[in-house]
Every structure is written in structure tokens, then in C-alpha cells.
Fold this sequence. Notes:
By secondary structure, the protein is α/β, with parallel strands linked by helices. The protein has a single domain, classed as Rossmann fold, CATH 3.40.50.300.
Amino acid sequence: MNRAYFGVEGLDYKLQKGLSYGSQIMVEGESGVGKTVLAGEFIKEGLRCGDTCVYVACDEPPAAMREHLLSFRVGITAYEEAGRLIFIDAYEEDRSKEKYALSGYCNLDKYFALETEVLHKCSGRRLRLVVDSLSTLFTMIDAPEILDFHRTRIKQLRKSGVLAMDIYVSGVLEPRLMAITGHLYNFILKMNFSGSRHNPVRVMQIGKVKSQQFVSSRHMFTVDPVYGILVSADMGVLE
């Protein structure tokens, strides 16, 4: 299989030919909108089709994603023992009991070295990488350092053929920095709440940056505790 999918039926239908390995996906969204659910679907799909999946936990301990995958009926113990599901703990720091953990929070050099080490040990396999959320690592970092880290890291991921999903929480980084960062990714997916306060709806925008403009199609979606993300109506294309 040379093409990859999210594992979300309505979303994958919009992709048609899927994504190539070596692509980088930027997922941006508000807190609670369903970004981590999407990450779980992405990992589940990767395991199903034979990929090795690496999940970097920044906003919650790795146990939260383990529980999430179990709710999707994924046999995580077998996959971890086989080395096909790997967790990097960037949340607990020195208290972590994980095999791979980041000590020295918000140190991009240490993070880059640890990510490179883990991915190198998996070389020769089809790889999926999820960082949830990358924006958390950038909280105390200056914009020039963030951009330099991005350029170096994404170049390496692309060269290594890693299918990477970087998750960002809306509002954490400056809009200008987010816009510049978005140009480095092959694919952008924005997830936000719309509608009224009393009747909120979830909307995802699927697209990429073209000619300095984010061009996307908009779709409503829901989050089901059993079936995960369900994509519904097409709300039109933004030109």
C-alpha cells in the first residue's frame, strides 16, 4: 500500500487517492473539538494496514491515548509488544514510566533528538507519527527558533518517508506564526466549533495552502463514543 488514509470514512472519501507516505499533516483546532479522537482514528487505521505508529503525548499522559484506543477495541498490548505501537511521553517528564520520555520540557533540541532516535530505530518500516499537541512544546519558545526547528524536522521526516500528523491547539501560537508554519505542510485540517452557544456544531476544513491562501472544503462532523468521528454534510468550497 503506497497511499494512506485517516480511517474516517467521510474524510477519506474526500481525499480520493489518499496521502503519500512522507507527507506532513497539520491539524489545528479548538480544545474539545475532537483532535485527539482524530489522532486515535489515524493510529487505528495505521495499525490495521500494517504501519508502525508513534504517538507523542504532550497534553495528557500516554495512558489517555491507550484508553482511547481500547475504546476503539484496539489490542494495544499486542501492538506494543510487537513494537508497532510506540509512545513517547512528553507530559510526565521525570515522573514518566515510559520507555521513551522527554526530560526538559520545551527544549526543542532534546525533543528533536528523542524523536529522531525513536524513528531511526523503526527505519525500514512504514511509519506514522502523531504529536499531540506540538503547539504545547512551543509555549515558551521564540518564533525564529520554532521556524528553524520546523524546517529542519519536516525536511527530515519527508526524506525518511514518515507520515506525520502534528496537532495544534487554536490560539496558543500567534496567527502569523501559524500561517507561516502552515506553508510547510502538505495537508491542513482545521477543526472548530460553529453555530450558536446553545447549538454548537463541529466543522472541519479540509485543504492546503495554495498561492498564499488556504483553500478548503468545509464539512460538519460529530464525535461518537463508539464510532469516533462521523463526517456529514458538505458546506461548500472556500475559494
